[in-house]
Amino acid sequence: MTKTKSYYFPVLFLMPGFEESEINIGHFTLSTRKWRTSTFDLATLATKHKLHLPYQAMDIFLGHCNLEICISNVETIEEAQQKFRAIQIALYKTGISPFLSPLISTHSINSYSGINTRDSGLSLDMLPGALRTGLKSNQDIVEVWPLELSFDCQTINEKRSVSIESFYVAGKFVAEWLRITASTPSLLALESAMIEAPKLSSRAQSILHIWTALESIFPLVTTEVSFRMALYMAQLNSIGTDRRGYHSRVKRAYNMRSKIAHGAKFNPEFSDWMEAWRLVTDTVTAIVRRGRLPNEEQLLDELLA
Predict the structure, then answer these.
(1) Minimal CA–CA distance to 189: which of 170, 217, 211?
(2) Contact 243, 235 (CB under 8 A)
(3) Among residues 3, 98, 222, 299, which one has the fewest Cβ atoms lying within 10 Å of its Cβ?
(4) 72-198-96-230 Cα dihedral, nearest 10 degrees
């Protein structure tokens, strides 16, 4: 029987909107960062452990980390990354701002903080009480891999706080998203583009990347693209009878996409980006609500029925 493992993903830009030290749901734990990690702690990891990136880079990135996501009970690092991508999508669906995770580690940042002092034993009494006992280099090996080594991210300032409710909603969403993408592999293109789009420093290119994601789910749309994309997305995403209003929203957003693609618009506003972002988060929400991705013919049948 394969032994399961846990992997840790430090999260940049987001803040805890809860008082507990951690929240658990299924394979996912969201923890607050408890301690400052000194440069000497990271240098100890570089000399006595397994780092696949410079410890100086870790020092810079972790200066912007207040939360950490643990993916537990997985067999491989690839499985952990798959589930991390799914929780990213799920958090974005709940309205949380896009964020980055610069690295993956076998141990929590809360575990290896203070490791330099614990190893040496010098000035141990200077550490907070809870840091005096914990991981030492002779007990286990910390391994760290790079993931998203960038600070470029289209963030939403007022949506950086993660509440207990939003994390629980995201955790429940993940299981269904993983089930649907397993049966519909083409949705992985949507997932990938949605994760990558906010990392593009150019707002215009980010909007185009979002539309690449949206267009990927309607591969048969090759003519009258603006009208047909708006028609299918209105039927897929709108709830109730406001399909006409949603159809107009999509057409306006697609026209912005076309202006960018054809060089008529170089500097879109953040509101333009937000409208494209809302459309893609609406889309993943609708797919999970339906339990599947209907194709173009099925959406047209629904509309005409």
Answers:
(1) 217
(2) yes
(3) 3
(4) -120
Q: How far apart are CA 273 and CA 85, in angstroms?
A: 21
pTM as predicted: 0.93
Q: What is the pLDDT of residues 124-165, one digit of tens each?
A: 887 888 888 889 999 999 999 999 999 999 999 999 999 999
Any bridge partners for residue 87, and if so which?
Answer: none
Sign of CA dihedral 16, 173, 191, 71: positive
The tokens 């309607």 sit on which residue? 218
Give one word for 296, left, alpha or beta, with left for phi > 0 and alpha for psi -120 to 50. Answer: alpha
Distance CA 136, CA 148 (A): 27
Helix H or strand E segment including 103: strand 103-105
Strand 50-51 with 143-146, pairing: parallel
Question: Which of 201, 200, 197, 204 shows the shortest CA–CA distance to 277?
Answer: 197
Q: Is the pLDDT of residue 280 over 80?
A: yes
Q: Work out the average pLDDT over 271-276.
A: 97
Q: Which residues of 11-30 are buried (b: 16+ CB within 10 A; e: fewer)?
A: bbbbebebeeebbebebbbb
Distances 127 to 35, 62, 115, 121 between C-alpha atoms, Å:
10, 20, 11, 11
C-alpha span between 100 and 151 (Å, rounded): 8
Nearest to 176 by CA among 240, 76, 95, 87: 87
| Nearest one of 290, 257, 230, 288 to 89, comparing CA atoms | 288
